[in-house]
Write a structure and sequence with these properties.
alpha+beta; Beta-lactamase; 7-stranded antiparallel β-sheet; 20 strands; elongated; disordered C terminus
């Protein structure tokens, strides 16, 4: 048998080396392409429509000071007149009642302890009658429940009963004043001063920001809220008492307290409910320094008439609404959609802005949480979760084998990292 020539041996060696090279390359290439991690799918954020509303204009009384707020809203929504603390007359009795209930709580449906009046209480009748204050009859030995006593104070606005109430709760008027100062400080009502429980002193003063905050606390106490909404009450021995607030039931007004004093003018702390879309909002307001009761009531009705138009129910997201879209280099796509509907009640030209934040996406299933959209509404924040409306799967072996450059480090694949964007300027 003849020996292969040198050239044949060389060709065989080259062929063998080539086969080995191909096998070696395949041993690297196949695992690299079939097992290599893929970059995150890119995301784009859909633009958010920008709406603009003008600031609401209210018809405020042209008196000392007035303003409004609403339960669930921070601070004063709108105001007019003096920013200084002004005399508040019998609105003081709301504060006195809240301070007493802080020390002597009472639940709805409870009468509370029995309070027995003595000769000191009888003397209070003459004390306040001589200065022209509102009074109700009382006799020594008369027993009355705490609930009945609160009704006389808040509905009839009887000054003698107000002082008897704090005397029962705290032992003396000076102890009541100390307790009230501590209560006001704890509540952050820094511009309010109460030197006695009835409001006959012009030194009982407060500001619009403090008073709307106190009004919210009054409505937040179910006993107080129930009493101040009563047009009349029947109190044993005293009889049927008519609420001094003649606007109850007018324009949905359901509280809270009137006040009249020469130095304070006619005053009113009020509350009223409005239905806006699917929401009900409780507005609180105050008017200080009215010329007289009739002028105060007329001005309050004009103010209340214009408030509803200032509230807007703004849809933040509809369920399934698209906030971001994903696409992959291998032709798959999915959307980041709102997992639930969300809306918010806003006042006037309150700014609404939002930030969309989505996670990097390699593989995920339909319905997987992928991020959130956070809306800033004034000082409040509302977050809506985002989920995928379709799955993103692995591209498969054929795509991997035919697109090696996209899989190489530094190739065209996207790097992992949170994808987010910010949209601002949305005004409702």
């Amino acid at each position: 048998m003849s020996t292969p020539s040198r050239s044949v041996l060389l060709r065989r060696r080259v062929a063998a080396a080539l086969v080995l090279a191909i096998v070696a390359a395949g041993g690297v290439y196949l695992p690299m392409t079939l097992l290599a991690p893929i970059g995150a799918a890119s995301a784009s954020i859909d633009p958010v429509e920008t709406l603009v509303r003008d600031a609401s204009e209210l018809t405020f009384p042209g008196v000392g000071a007035s303003g409004i707020s609403a339960v669930g809203f921070d601070g004063v929504l709108a105001s007019s007149g003096s920013e200084e603390a002004l005399p508040i007359a019998s609105i003081s009795k709301v504060i006195s009642t809240l301070v007493v209930l802080d020390a002597k709580p009472l639940a709805v449906g409870e009468d509370g302890p029995s309070i027995v009046f003595n000769q000191v209480d009888v003397a209070l009748y003459g004390k306040y009658q001589r200065v022209g204050g509102t009074v109700e009859p009382v006799t020594a030995g008369l027993a009355m429940s705490q609930r009945d006593l609160l009704e006389v104070v808040l509905v009839s606005s009887a000054n003698n009963y107000a002082e008897s109430l704090v005397g029962w709760a705290f032992g003396s008027q000076s102890e009541f004043v100390d307790a009230t100062e501590a209560w006001l400080t704890a509540g952050g009502f820094d511009s309010t001063v109460i030197v006695e429980p009835t409001g006959v002193s012009p030194s009982n003063v407060s500001s619009i920001p403090d008073l709307v905050g106190i009004a919210k606390l009054a409505l937040g106490n179910p006993v107080v809220a129930e009493i101040v909404a009563s047009k009349s009450v029947d109190v044993p021995y005293v009889g049927t008492l008519t609420n001094t607030n003649r606007l109850l039931g007018v324009e949905s007004i359901d509280g809270i307290k009137t006040g009249t004093l020469e130095e304070a003018g006619s005053c009113l702390l009020f509350s009223t409910d409005y239905t806006v879309g699917s929401s009900v909002v409780t507005v609180v307001g105050v008017v200080l320094g009215g010329e007289n009761r009739e002028a105060l009531e007329s001005a309050t009705r004009s103010l209340v008439d214009g408030i509803a138009a200032g509230f807007h129910e703004v849809p933040l997201a509809e369920k399934g609404e698209v906030f971001a879209s994903y696409s992959t280099d291998w032709g798959q796509s999915a959307n980041a959609v709102a997992a639930e509907a969300s809306s918010v009640l806003v006042w006037s030209d309150t700014p609404v802005s939002g930030e969309v934040a989505v996670q990097p996406l390699v593989k995920a299933g339909r319905g997987d949480a992928i991020g959130e959209v956070t809306f800033t509404v004034g000082d409040a924040r509302v977050s809506v979760p985002l989920v995928l409306d379709a799955g993103i799967a692995d591209p498969g072996p054929w795509w991997r084998l035919s697109h090696p450059l996209e899989l190489l480090p530094g190739g065209d694949g996207n790097s992992d990292g949170a994808l987010s964007t910010l949209f601002t300027g949305r005004r409702i």
